Backbone:
């Protein structure tokens, strides 16, 4: 018990600090640790499950709560925070980045409470049956999500001038580029899935360079080349003024979105957030930030917890996938240990939000926005090279070029998720190998 | 209704066909994709295609640096009066006023039917979510009125807010009784939201994908049209046999949160129920129990929370407490 | 001075001539003048498109011309999860075929290579194709099979066959 608690706190503390680095994803850190654990096991020094599981949960929860700091303060979102940038940037540019971060973290904590206190006890009773019902239908649910995602991007331009082809092409520029982004990233996904150029020794991180290129690289690059500087950030002495209704509304939307993304395969937190945002018509910036905090936490943590639910055993998300290689949960004890670790990790991480946010703001005062982004860029390049080598860097560069298209044309960056959505949807419908054959990959 | 509501209703319509559910379970996603796509198709056709080709006669592009409500009011009144004089429809487009990446100048166009005039009032600046930005807007608000030469018969709402993205088009249509009707965004819910065109689209779908696909497409399209009829604008239900939109039942506004969320939630429950019925080996569940726990209980809890919240805010704003 | 005017300042987002906000537009929709950063933006846009398309094409050429490595089963590690490899070995037991509503739904067989085992699986369409072609390897057959590795908890290794053409049944002499 004590070992489990200590492992939880250590994992949380480690990921909380590392999460403040922009562009560093918990799955990157976890992959390095998993590699180390496998190496130890190969030498006959296997780590006990009571240490591995709580540590991994601590890493995940810490990241889910604390990665909102760079999302708001340094605008380097991962694929599940594609919306936080805009409202979070508003707070940042108004010198209220601290407030924005805490509002997002409050949403995360509320989501965690909902997960542990409401979903946790009900999950073993409800989710196995729901899993049985939805299992043969997850493929068309994924296709419907893709169709909605593509159809719901409205043309942004073409608002002025007389009707005709000129207005039509002006309006469709952004939408067209969004569709192109989806197609190109989907093609990249097929390449990585069927004939990945990543060395096979690092194949379990096949998709990592692509994700870094599609999502992290464009933002860091733009931060470095643009002349935008964040204004000085103030740390309010008193309350951040978050009322109960805003917290409830945001948490409700976030839990729905994050829960949907966690339960159904391939759908990420960003997509879940999009669907929940549309379904609940979220407009207010504060509600939005709360919902994104809740969505992100529920997506990452519930995704991992699904592995432990007795009678379900779903592998969702990178953390569960990597953890499953080391440990397979089987009993109710494993589930309860996981829930307890989530609760402890959440409390620990939330206590660290304030101090770490202030620390990052302090760093921002000493070093410019651009310098911090440049440092993060170098760190990310080193990580990709260290894990996947030169081919990983090549994949990252191509993905980075594709990821720049929506940023430069003003279309949704979520379309970059085609890298996993398209090949997985095709595979789940049984058409993946056929498409791969048409493409000459098989 | 918002796009996600229509999409979810379309997918739910598809789930009502047992053969579509069987096909889905066997790995064929076609019918559910068709349900969702056809559920959203009418609005897609309007907002992504039709509106770029609808010609207008006058375009009003307010200067963001020099707000002039009088010019806007004058232009709208001119359009109404011209339509009245020439007995021919005249379209006027009102552009939005963008001030920054996330900042727009809101203005309202008010058809003051009783006093036979059009009023334009500048409101606060808003963000892209439509939320007013505190500290913006003038007190009293910038306002101007322009007289109308005839009576106006409202087609939609008397007050139209022009703020974000694309501005509206009004088609001033002279009526037989001598009035002029300002048709709000006449290109929307016209031919695309008719049962006749819907049947035609479903027919084409059927020729390509088979009779089940046609039925799914028809059901999804009908769902879209019927839910839109719950609002104010209505649809041109039998184009080309009918010429005008049939007014809606005014039970809700398209952008309201609760009706949209309720539509999505109920659609998800319908889908779940239809899938559940065709799944072997699941624990027994009656539709009444599902409705009670998944619909009734959340509705009750949310209603209680709302009442509690309004009581708390009323107490806290009562002077002396 | 109106509130709107107070927010307008000549910058890259604003037209250099009429000073109205135009965002990333290359041409001002009010006065048809080119924006201050239209040149740079055009270059970046074209560069992103060209690099993305060309890079993807190069990756595709490299990938489609690469050979799938032959991997001894004993060398397979958990880090190779999702790797595309070739395995050569002997079928250790009779293949398992499952049917759903009378149709072949799943197929698997065990391949051994110097005492190490790997389960090869095929779903639905691939399994049906193998059965129809009578290409399901029997116990004792030597196979050359390529697919994607799946390594789950406890070190269980599986190779997923994506197309029937990736399975070749060889004579023992051929394989040695």
Residues:
């Amino acid at each position: 018990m004590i070992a489990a608690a200590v492992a939880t706190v250590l994992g949380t503390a480690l990921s909380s600090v590392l999460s403040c680095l922009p562009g560093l994803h918990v799955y990157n850190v976890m992959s390095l640790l998993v590699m180390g654990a496998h190496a130890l096991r190969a030498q006959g020094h296997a780590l006990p499950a009571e240490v591995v599981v709580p540590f991994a949960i601590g890493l995940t929860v810490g990241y889910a709560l604390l990665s909102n700091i760079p999302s708001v303060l340094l605008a380097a979102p991962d694929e599940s925070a594609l919306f936080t940038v805009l409202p979070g940037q508003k707070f940042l540019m108004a010198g209220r980045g601290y407030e924005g971060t805490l509002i997002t973290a409050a949403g995360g904590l509320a989501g965690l409470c909902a997960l542990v206190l409401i979903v946790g006890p009900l999950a073993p009773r409800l989710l196995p049956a729901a899993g049985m019902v939805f299992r043969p239908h997850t493929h068309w649910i994924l296709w419907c999500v893709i169709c909605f995602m593509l159809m719901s991007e409205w043309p942004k331009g073409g608002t002025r001038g007389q009707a005709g082809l000129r207005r039509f092409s002006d309006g469709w520029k952004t939408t067209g580029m969004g569709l192109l982004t989806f197609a190109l990233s989907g093609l990249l996904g097929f390449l990585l899935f069927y004939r990945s150029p990543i060395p096979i020794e690092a194949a379990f991180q096949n998709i990592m360079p692509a994700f870094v290129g599609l999502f992290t690289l464009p933002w860091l690059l733009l931060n470095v080349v643009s002349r935008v500087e964040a204004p000085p950030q103030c740390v309010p002495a008193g309350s951040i003024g978050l009322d109960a209704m805003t917290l409830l509304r945001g948490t409700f939307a976030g839990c729905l979105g994050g829960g949907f993304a966690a339960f159904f395969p391939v759908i990420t937190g960003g997509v879940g957030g999009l669907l929940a945002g549309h379904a609940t018509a979220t407009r207010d910036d504060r509600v939005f930030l709360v919902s994104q905090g809740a969505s992100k936490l529920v997506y990452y943590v519930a995704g991992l917890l699904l592995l432990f639910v007795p009678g379900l055993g779903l592998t969702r998300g990178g953390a569960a996938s990597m953890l499953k290689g080391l440990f397979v949960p089987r009993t109710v004890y494993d589930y309860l240990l996981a829930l307890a670790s989530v609760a402890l990790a959440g409390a620990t991480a939330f206590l660290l939000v304030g101090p770490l946010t202030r620390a990052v703001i302090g760093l921002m005062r000493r070093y410019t926005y651009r310098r911090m982004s440049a440092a993060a860029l170098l760190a990310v390049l080193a990580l990709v090279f260290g894990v996947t080598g030169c081919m990983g860097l090549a994949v990252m560069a191509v993905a980075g070029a594709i990821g720049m298209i929506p940023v430069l044309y003003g279309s949704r960056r979520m379309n970059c998720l085609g890298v996993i959505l398209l090949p997985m949807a095709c595979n789940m419908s049984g058409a993946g190998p056929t498409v791969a054959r048409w493409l000459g990959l098989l | 209704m918002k796009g996600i509501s229509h999409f979810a209703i379309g997918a739910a319509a598809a789930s009502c066909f047992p053969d579509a559910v069987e096909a889905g379970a066997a790995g064929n996603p076609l019918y559910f994709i068709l349900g969702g796509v056809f559920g959203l198709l009418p609005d897609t056709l309007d907002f992504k295609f039709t509106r770029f080709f609808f010609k207008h006669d006058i375009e009003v592009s307010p200067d963001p640096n020099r707000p002039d409500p009088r010019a806007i009011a004058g232009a709208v009144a001119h359009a109404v009066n011209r339509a009245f004089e020439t007995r021919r429809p005249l379209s006027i487009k009102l552009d939005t006023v963008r001030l920054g990446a996330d900042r727009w100048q809101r203005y309202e166009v008010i058809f003051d039917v009783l006093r036979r005039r059009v009023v334009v009032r500048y409101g606060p600046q808003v963000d892209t979510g439509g939320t007013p930005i505190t500290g913006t807007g003038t007190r009293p608000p910038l306002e101007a009125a322009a007289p109308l030469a005839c009576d106006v018969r409202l087609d939609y709402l008397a007050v139209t807010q022009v703020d974000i993205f694309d501005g509206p088009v009004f088609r001033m249509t002279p009526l037989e009784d001598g009035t002029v009707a300002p048709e709000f965004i006449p290109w929307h819910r016209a031919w695309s939201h008719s049962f006749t065109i819907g049947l035609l689209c479903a027919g084409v779908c059927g020729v390509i994908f088979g009779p089940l696909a046609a039925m799914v497409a028809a059901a999804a399209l009908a769902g879209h049209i019927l839910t839109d009829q719950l609002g104010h604008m209505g649809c041109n239900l039998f184009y080309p046999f009918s010429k005008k939109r049939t007014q809606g039942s005014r039970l809700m506004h398209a952008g309201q949160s609760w009706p949209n969320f309720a539509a999505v939630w109920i659609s998800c429950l319908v889908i779940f129920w239809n899938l559940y019925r065709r799944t072997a080996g699941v624990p027994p569940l009656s539709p009444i129990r599902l409705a009670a726990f998944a619909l009734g209980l959340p509705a009750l809890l949310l209603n209680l929370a709302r009442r509690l919240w309004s009581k708390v805010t009323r107490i806290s704003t009562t002077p002396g407490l | 001075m109106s509130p709107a005017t107070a927010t307008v300042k000549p910058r890259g987002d604003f037209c250099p001539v009429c000073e109205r906000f135009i965002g990333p537009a290359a041409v001002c929709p009010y006065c048809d003048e080119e924006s201050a950063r239209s040149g740079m933006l055009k270059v970046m846009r074209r560069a992103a498109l060209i690099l993305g398309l060309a890079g993807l094409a190069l990756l595709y050429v490299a990938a489609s011309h690469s050979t799938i490595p032959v991997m001894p089963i004993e060398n397979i590690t958990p880090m190779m999860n999702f790797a595309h490899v070739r395995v050569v070995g002997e079928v250790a037991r009779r293949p398992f075929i499952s049917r759903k509503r009378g149709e072949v739904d799943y197929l698997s067989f065990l391949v051994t290579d110097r005492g190490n085992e790997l389960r090869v699986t095929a779903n639905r369409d691939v399994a049906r194709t193998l059965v129809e072609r009578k290409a399901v390897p029997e116990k004792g057959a030597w196979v050359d099979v390529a697919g994607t590795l799946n390594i789950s908890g406890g070190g269980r290794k599986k190779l997923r066959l994506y197309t029937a053409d990736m399975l070749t049944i060889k004579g023992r002499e051929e394989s040695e």
Notes: The longest helix of chain B spans residues 287-317. The longest strand of chain B covers residues 103-112.
